[in-house]
Structures are given as C-alpha cells and as structure tokens.
Amino acid sequence: MTLDTVIPARVLVTKIGLDGHDRGSRIVAAYLRDAGMEVIYTDPWQKLEAVVALALQEDVDVIGISSLATDHLLVPKLMKALDEAGLGHIRVIVGGIVPAEEEADLLKAGVSRVFHPGSGREEIVEAVAKLAVDAADDRTDD
Amino acid sequence: MKQATPEMPALARRLINGETAALARAISVVERDTPQAIEILRAIRPHLGQAIVVGFTGPPGAGKSTLVNAYVAELRRRGKTVGIVAVDPSSPITGGAVLGDRIRMAEHTLDEGVFIRSLASRGALGGLSASAAQVADLMDAADRDVVILETVGTGQSEVEMATIADVRVVIAAPGLGDDVQAIKAGILEIADVLVVNKADQPLASQTRRQLNAMLGLRATAEHPVPVLSTDAINRVGVADLADAVTVVADRRDRQTDRSALAGRTRHLLAQAVSKAAEAHVMNSRSEKVEDILHAVQDARLGLTDAAKQILGGILGYNANEQ
Ligand code: B12
Ligand SMILES: Nc1nc2c(ncn2[C@@H]2O[C@H](COP(=O)(O)OP(=O)(O)OP(=O)(O)O)[C@@H](O)[C@H]2O)c(=O)[nH]1
Ligand SMILES: [Mg+2]
C-alpha cells in the first residue's frame, strides 16, 4: 500500500510599491485557490526585501506581482534580489497594466510571463501550474 | 552552540546551523512525507526539546493572528527567537487555500529572529495539519526559543494542539455569536491560559465573567487557569500573557513529561493510520474491499465491523484483539 502525497503548488500573490489597486490580485488569488493551489496572499505595498523574505520562508514555487500603476518597473530589481537569496528557481509572473515595451524589459529580466487586463481564469491557472512544476524541477538543494 | 555531525543529510545540517533557507526547505520536505523527510527528522532528534511550543486556538475571528503578532513583539523585546506555524483551512472540495494569517504579522517579516510558515490543513481535522508537529520540531531544531502554533479557528476541541503544545492558550472574544458558546465544550479542558481578547469591546467583561463561571464548574484542575484580558490591536495585556505562558512552561519543564511524548506519538500514529486506511478504501479495487463494501450497502454488515475487517485485511491481524 502506498500513500501518494501530492503537494499543491505554493504561490505568493502580492503587490510592491505604492499602488493600492488590489482587486486583480484578490481575484487571481481566488482563481488559484479554487484550482487547488496554496496561496500566500499579502496586503499591497510590500517592500522588495519583504517579498524575498516571504518567498523564502514560505518556500513558494511562483511569485505573482500585480501592478496597475508603474510598480512593475521594480520587478527587475526583485529578480536580482531573488537570485542573490538563492531563490533563482522561483518563477515570477506579473499581471496588470504593463505597456508593451516595458513587458519586453520584464521578460528580458527573467519574468516568465505578463498577464494583461481581461486575462481569463483558465489561462492564468494553467500557466501558474506549469511554472510551479518548472520551479520544482529547478530546485538545487534537495 | 549545536554541533551538526557530518553524516547528516545536508538539509538537516544546514538547518541545525541556523540557515533559514534550509529550515524553509526542510518544512516542505516534511510536508511531502518523503523518505528524505524521515532522514531529516531522525537527524534532528538530538537537537529537540530546547523550544517552548505554545499553541493559540479559538474561534474564527477571535484575534488569534493579531494576538500572536503582539505576543511575538513582546517575545522579541525579551530577546527570544520565534518560529510560527500558522494553519489555515484547505477547501475540502478543491484542496486549495488562501493562507492569510501572516497578513496580521507583517511587522515581523523582515526580522531574522522571526520565521513564519503558513500551512494548509490539507484535510486534517482538529485545527492543525498532519505535519504540524514535525514542522514545530524542525523549528525547535533550528534554534527557535519559542515555537507558536496558530490553529484553524474551529473553536472545537483541539485535541491535536493539546498533544503538541507545551502551553495551550485558548482565545475567546466578545461578540462572536453567542459569546462563550463559540468556545465549545472540550476546548476549555485543554486550556492552560484563557484569554478574552478584544477587551476594548463593550461586552468583554461579560465574556470574561461567563468564562470564569464555566471554569468554576471545573473544580478538578490541579493548577487554576488564569483568565486574562487583551486588546491585541493596542497591545494591552500582552506582557501579562507572556508571563502566564512562561509560568506554565516552567512547570512543564520540571515534569519532563515522557508519557506525554509517547501519547503524542500514539496520536500522530493513529492519525496516519486512518489516513492510510482511507486512501486504501478510496483507491482499492480489491475484491475483498468490494465484497465488504457490498455487504455494507446491502445492510448485511455494520460499518464498525466492516472497518475492523478491512483493518484486519491490511494489517494481517484480527482488529478485535485490541
Ligand atoms: C477600480 C479602479 C480603481 C479603484 C481600486 C479599487 C481596488 N481596491 O482595487 C480605486 C477607485 C480605489 C482606484 C484608485 C486609483 N486609480 Co484606479 N482604476 C480602477 C480601474 C477602473 C479598474 C481596475 C480593476 O480593479 N480592474 C479589475 C481587475 C480584476 O482587473 P486587473 O487588475 O486588470 O486584473 C486582471 C489582469 O490584469 C490580470 N492580473 C492582474 N494582477 C495580476 C496578478 C497575477 C499574479 C496574474 C497572474 C494576473 C494578474 O488578471 C486579472 C483578471 O483578468 C482601472 C482602469 C482599468 N480599466 O484597469 C483604474 C486605473 C488602474 N486607476 C488608475 C489611477 C490613476 C488611479 C488613481 C491614482 C486615481 C487618482 N488620481 O486618485 C487611484 C490610485 C489608487 C491607489 N492607491 O493606488 C489608472 C492607472 C494608470 C496607469 N497605469 O498609469 C487606471 C488604469 C485608470 C486610467 N485609465 O487612468 N482605481
Ligand atoms: N477591537 C479589536 N479587534 C481585534 C482585536 N484583535 C483582533 N481584532 C480584529 O479581529 C479581526 C480578526 O482578527 P484575526 O487576528 O485575523 O483573527 P483570527 O482568530 O486569527 O482569525 P482566523 O485565523 O481567520 O480564525 C480583525 O479585524 C482584527 O483586526 C482586539 O483586541 N480588539
Ligand atoms: Mg488567524
């Protein structure tokens, strides 16, 4: 007799900078929860160091940053901080209002994907589930 | 300083040496219940028993997370390092969860002396997750002075927390439905310290009176259970809470309670057996199980007898033999 323990993906859904639009991040957190994932949800206005500490302590597979203003411009800095903390395996996605040229910069900085207003539940869930598997495959310490 | 021996699993060694990332990772491994998990748990055994494990339980919205946040601030003022295991319910249907306890503890996110881990209950009853005890052990081995468990707010008898925690804090609050009714029978019995939180609310003193009256009916207690008042938001009464926890913990230390440890292991084992048996019945298509299933369906066999037959089949002995 075997006991198969399937562990749900763990995802941090958060917001950085000064932007307080949190409807998108709340909805996305609910999408992911309803798809069977474990979501660590925070208030907006997180510092980058806080996002790194949260991701480390909670051992998440994916970080989702919601940005309706300009705070996604901080994400390349976040990518660097994650790398320095030994968390390079974590996949980072951004959702919200991101102009095309800024999206290109984010992808260049290592962001896995950018979601725009109107993104559907299925599209989001499917992408996060796949990225969580990729992140788990890339772990180096066990 | 603790010494890690070289033949240990690397993760265990790094954890004992105080590396935060290793603690975070080891918790995930233990949650997965893999063979590596057992190696880590074995390796840390000599390093256990340093931490005081304090459980916080009480009905939903009583202010457990807010009070834990204030209590942790007090512990930090007293120079203690802290690990927090915060359990929130998984959806019984999808298995998913939004883990929100730590939102109320955000002021400690950047403090290296505080490590917070959110766990989903993953179907476990009793307010904790199946691996919560082991996660608490990992934090103990990682040199946390105080390990705090926040249960899912059920307000029902939190037997599990009772077996894991050294000190059990039960939190009530005014204005939660029928006041003290929210604290169900069974939960008062496990309390070492009772707290009426939201002392700033008008009905708090009434709640306190009701609790005292209920405690008065329980004359059996060896040590009287203190009933404290706190306002977790304004941090009133929190130092008294910390003192009360210390008093209980000191009492426990002197007992060095071996039988309690064995009791806890027995409880964890019982849980694991029922989980394994459930998986067996749900997934097995063996003839034997199907026969028993049909016998129950046709009312030829009672549920209890059927369960004993199935357990007998799995374990290869007669479950009637105690
Ligand atoms: C509702 C709203 C508000 C509400 C916010 C309520 C709240 N708690 O969220 C209120 C009225 C408070 C508000 C205030 C302001 N707002 Co406003 N607001 C909007 C509005 C109309 C809709 C946003 C919304 O909730 N959409 C619904 C959600 C569900 O969609 P969403 O966030 O886009 O999320 C979807 C996707 O983007 C994606 N997604 C989003 N996040 C994530 C994260 C992950 C991980 C993933 C996978 C996907 C994902 O998936 C979601 C589902 O499809 C937008 C205009 C617009 N059309 O977007 C302006 C808008 C965002 N606001 C704007 C502005 C300027 C402001 C104010 C500065 C106005 C002011 N001068 O006071 C303030 C600032 C508030 C603050 N503190 O930051 C501007 C921003 C301009 C910019 N990008 O440069 C916008 C674009 C309006 C505009 N055209 O000018 N606002
Ligand atoms: N007035 C008042 N409100 C409080 C106090 N403590 C907590 N609250 C509020 O009560 C609500 C619930 O607090 P939490 O700390 O999330 O309660 P909880 O018991 O952890 O809730 P669950 O984990 O969901 O069961 C929040 O809105 C808090 O701000 C207090 O002492 N006084
Ligand atoms: Mg809580």
What's the structural blueprint in terms of helices and strands?
The complex is a heterodimer of chains A (142) and B (322).
Chain A: E1 10-14, H1 23-34, E2 38-41, H2 48-58, E3 62-67, H3 75-84, E4 91-96, H4 100-108, E5 113-115, H5 121-138
Parallel strand pairs in A: 1-2, 1-3, 3-4, 4-5
Chain B: H1 10-16, H2 20-32, H3 35-44, E1 52-57, H4 64-77, E2 82-88, E3 97-99, E4 114-120, H5 132-141, E5 146-150, H6 159-164, E6 167-172, H7 187-190, E7 193-196, H8 204-216, E8 227-229, H9 238-255, H10 258-283, H11 287-297, H12 303-315
Parallel strand pairs in B: 1-5, 1-6, 2-4, 2-5, 6-7, 7-8
Helix pairs in contact in B: 1-2, 1-3, 2-3, 2-5, 4-9, 11-12
Describe what this molecule looks like in 3D.
The complex is a heterodimer of chains A (142) and B (322). Chain A has 142 residues and is α/β, with parallel strands linked by helices. Chain A has a single domain, classed as Cobalamin-binding domain (Rossmann fold). Helix content of chain A is 42%, strand content 17%. Chain A is built from five helices and five strands. Chain A has a five-stranded parallel beta sheet with strand order 2-1-3-4-5, with helices on both faces. In chain A, strand 3, helix 3 and strand 4 form a beta-alpha-beta unit. The radius of gyration of chain A is 14 Å and the shape is globular. Chain B is an alpha/beta fold and 322 residues long. Chain B folds into three domains: 47 residues, no CATH class; 204 residues, 3-Layer(aba) Sandwich (Rossmann fold), CATH 3.40.50.300; 62 residues, no CATH class. Chain B is built from twelve helices and eight strands. A seven-stranded parallel beta sheet of chain B has the order 4-2-5-1-6-7-8, with helices on both faces. In chain B, strand 7, helix 8 and strand 8 form a beta-alpha-beta unit. In chain B, helix 1 crosses helix 2, helix 2 crosses helix 3 and helix 11 runs antiparallel to helix 12. The longest helix of chain B is centred in the last third of the chain and has 26 residues. The radius of gyration of chain B is 21 Å and the shape is globular. Chain B starts with 9 loop residues before the first helix and ends in a 7-residue tail after the last helix. Classes of the chains: A alpha/beta (142), B alpha/beta (322). At the A-B interface, helix 1, strand 2 and helix 2 of A face helix 2, strand 3, strand 4 and helix 10 of B. Strand 2 of chain A pairs parallel with strand 3 of chain B. The structure holds cobalamin (B12), guanosine-5'-triphosphate and magnesium ion. The site of magnesium ion has 4 residues of chain B, from helix 4.
